[in-house]
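Please, structure for the following, as tokens.
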Amino acid sequence: MTNPNDVASIDAIITAAYDVISGPAGQKRDLERERSLFLPGARLIPTAMKAGIASASESGPQFLDVEGCIARVEPYFAESGFYEKEVARRTERFGQIAQAWSTYESRHSQTDPEPFMRGINSIQLFNDGTRWWIVTIYWQHESVEAPLPEKYLGK
């Protein structure tokens, strides 16, 4: 069942998207809540390194549906704490569509002083007149070859 508060605004749905993937090692995530955020047919697209490729310039997208993404991360969440939070956002909206560049930091524990990973989620959203839906989350982790630009750090 969809929580109307999770999908009432762009802020709410992006906050919910980070919330549903965060938690301590071994904690089952609220998969029904997660599924409720995504439009049927939505895609989650990590920009992953190709096997044997050492350069970020030669990486490529991995296209997953919601179930494929859940299957990809569940083993990791079983073994490792994972807390991801948004630290900056740039949003543009036209009519029923919106695009958010959401800069994130990932930690193994909420008390970790420094993130083990940072990056940008490019989030495409759709409003059907009653609620917001996530259509796509396409992301890339920061690397030596691709440091986060200042304009996406909220400074």
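The first helix runs from residue 10 to 21. DSSP finds three helices and six strands in the chain.
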